[in-house]
Amino acid sequence: MERTIFTKDHDLFRSSVRDFVATEIAPFHPEWASDGVVPLSIWKKAGAQGYLCMAAPEEYGGAGVSDFRYDAILGEELTRQNCTGPGFGVHGTIVAPYILNYGTADQMRRWVPGMVTGDTILAVGMTESTSGSDLGSLRTTAVDDGDAYIVNGHKAFVSNGTLADVMIVSCITNPEHKQWGLSLLAIELPADGVTISRPLKKIGWHAQDTVEVFLDDVRVPKANLIGQPGQGLYLMGRELDQERMIIAVNAIAAARAALTWTVAYCKDREAFGKPIGSLQNSRFRLAEMETELTIGQVFIDRCIADWTARCLSS
After folding, report:
1. Pairing of strands 122-125, 166-172
2. 216 Cβ contact partners less than 8 Å away, ≥ 6 residues apart
3. Digit-coded pLDDT (tens) for 53-106
4. What are the residue numbers of the active site?
5. Distance CA 88, CA 96 (A)
6. Residue 72, Cβ neighbours under 10 Å: how many?
7. DSSP assignment, residue 59?
8. CA geometry: angle at 25 spanning 24 and 30, to 5°?
9. What is this structure's pTM?
10. Confidence band for 192, pLDDT divided at 50, 70 and 90
11. How far is it, in rounded angstroms, from Cα 287 to Cα 142?
């Protein structure tokens, strides 16, 4: 079924991204998977192409385009070629909005130009070994110390963790209120007291540098507070919707890629003297998969359109 939510400009952008992934990422991805991390050079190449933080204002080097469809295309094309290592989506679609939407003028000047060029890579530390969606059970604390906070705690499953230059961390600044005493701090890396593990061994996504981060008396200037003290839950409530959107977009793209590979296999693999794709049961099952996938894609495209309209109107 034809997708109707994209314009000619989006189609040109998709073609550009597809070529970039095919030439600059896909041939080297197996090596990166073995290394457990992608090279910094690919970030700078992506930045030079304008693929990072497209919503960043033009005065900071960005395109100033708050059109989620471009983020969706970037995610789809990386997924289409099974290139899960580059954390461009985490960087530009999930973490960057906290700085672009709630950052101070000083924070914007310090970080956004590098976010656009790939010289400043973003990560986020929210999940802990004892808490995921239950933010009330966070144990990472930030104690007021004059012009800074002293941060102690642990973060798990931090994507882009090895390469990150700025990591936004959720922490408790007011333990009496827990969830409503939650704040977001940007830690500039490397920093004294921050220990980053080796990339974690995972079932998939081997080229993605997902790590654990240990925070031991890390001094973070109050100038690095995102929003206001105690505003962390509110900010995450506003921005996590886009994170869920890009996850859904990539999930459908992954399913489409898997079905494409399966169809190709069914055409090549023979049994009983003919391709298994010509067998009635195989054809029925493939048709069912195509139907379910089309239904999912139509739903996600409606979500993309609605979310884009919301972003462009805000």
Report:
1. parallel
2. 152, 193, 194, 195
3. 999 999 999 999 999 999 999 999 999 999 999 999 999 999 999 999 999 999
4. 243
5. 10
6. 29
7. G
8. 135
9. 0.94
10. very high
11. 54
* Closest to 90 measured CA to CA, from 164, 36, 40, 19: 164
3-state SS assignment for residue 167: strand
Residue 217 gets the label, from left (phi > 0), alpha (psi -120 to 50) or beta, of: left
Q: What are 172's two structure tokens?
A: 């408790």
Burial class (CB in 10 A: 0-12, 13-18, 19+), 65: middle
Give yes or no for a contact between 60 and 67, defined as CB atoms under 8 angstroms apart: no
In the beta sheet, which residues pair with residue 153?
215
Give the pair of three-digit tokens for residue 105. 């003028």
CA angle 212, 82, 27 (to 5 degrees): 100
The answer to whether residues 197 and 154 touch, using CB atoms and an 8 Å cutoff, is: no
Other Cβ atoms closer than 10 A to 89: 21
- Going by C-beta distance under 8 Å and a sequence separation of 6 or more, which residues neighbour residue 261? none
